[in-house]
Design brief:
This protein is an alpha+beta fold and 133 residues long. 33% of the residues lie in helices and 32% in strands. The protein contains 3 helices and 6 strands. The protein has a 6-stranded antiparallel β-sheet with strand order 1-5-6-4-3-2.
Amino acid sequence: MTNTPCNPASRLVPSAIMLLLALGACATPVGHSNRPMQTYDRDTEYQVEERPGGFALTIYYSRYQFIPESDAVALACCSSLTAIAHEVAERRGRRIQQVNEQRIRLSMGRNGVTGITSCSATAPVDYAEAAAR
């Protein structure tokens, strides 16, 4: 069997290789929750889960980057998590303790084809009043 332009196998192998390369260029962050998310802004979605003395906050943050800078996305992701935590507590008429950065679980991903760098993060958020008791 020769590899000629009329042979379908000659087109199948390069197509399969290109598909594998395209899929290999994509990485998605680990999802910390399978519950529906609410939109916060253009780049961010979040989900709140009640727990004793506070709540657990999960966010998904993504943005386009021509030159990948995962550190910048990770920092923006953590900043968004903290800002959303304060806003959620404020809407409830509560104050929160400082979010412990060591308890933030962070997962990063990048789609090399689209240039989207994404982050998924979750952290427990404790009410300030709960700590005083």
